[in-house]
Amino acid sequence: MLDATKPSLPFTPGVGYKAQHFNDIMKDAGPVGWLEIHAENYMGMGGRPLAQLRHLSEKFPFSVHGVGLSIGGEGRLDADHLARLKTLCDWLNPASFSEHLAWSTHESAFLNDLLPLPYTAATVKRVADHIDEVQSTLGRQMLLENPSSYLAFAESDMSETDFLAEIVARTGCGLLLDVNNVFVSATNLGYSPQGYIDAYPLDVVREIHLGGHDEDEDETGAPLLIDSHGAEVVDPVWALLDYTLSKSGPKPLLIEWDTDVPEWAVLVEETKRADAALSVLV
C-alpha cells in the first residue's frame, strides 16, 4: 500500500538526471515533471553533486533507482550499502525507490553487472526476504524492475510474470515495468511482448521505464538485442508502450539514457513523445 504522507510521481515524463544537464533543466525542463537518480552515485557526503541534487529536489519529485543491492543474491544484503541508501532516502525523501530483479554479488565480490535468476520457489523466498529487509530498513515501499533477459534457466518452474506477482503478494512491494526490457527479452527468448504485458500485474505498477537498445546477432544469426540505455527508443517499443498504457492507464514514464548521453534537447524530444503517449489517455 502506498503511504499517503510521502510524495508521489506525477503521470508525466521523467528523465534520468545527469549533472551536465543541470543548467538546462533549471532553465527549461520542457515536459519533464520528475527526475531519477542512481542511488550509488549519491551516497557520498557533501560536494557539488549533492548540492545540485538538493536544489533540484525543491523543484522536482525524485525517484531513486538502485543498482547495487543484489536483491537476488544468495548472501545477505550488504548492511553498509543499505545504511548509506537509507541516509540518502531519508534526506532526499524520494517519491519512489526501485531496484532490479537480479544479483551482482558472490561472497565478498561485487560484479559490475545485473545477472539473471531462475524462477523457482527458493528464489521467490530469497528475493522476498531481501525486499522485506529493504522495505523495513528504509521505511518505504520498494519497486522491483523486470530484467532484460538473454537466456532462460531450465530449472525455472514459473513464468517471470507469475514470479513477480508472487513477490508482490509476499512483500507488498510495487513494480517498475521496463517496457524496453520486455521487448528485448521477448525478442531474445522468442515470446510475444504483448502476451507478457497481458500477464503482467499492471495494477501494482508505479513507474514505467523506456530506453534504447543495441541490435546484434547470436551465433546462429538470430536477432540479439542488448539493453544499453544508449540510444533513442525505437518505434516497436513505443508501440508496446501504447499497448501497455491502453491496459494500465497513465503512469509516470521515465526516459533512460545512461551511456553516450546526448544533449538536453535530444532528451526533451524523447520526453515529448512520451508526453504524447500519455496525452491520448486523458
Automatic annotation (TrEMBL):
It comes from the Bacteria. Signal peptide: none annotated. InterPro entries: MbnB/TglH/ChrH, Xyl_isomerase-like_sf. NCBIfam families: PRK05409.1. Belongs to the UPF0276 family. This is UPF0276 protein OCA8868_01506.
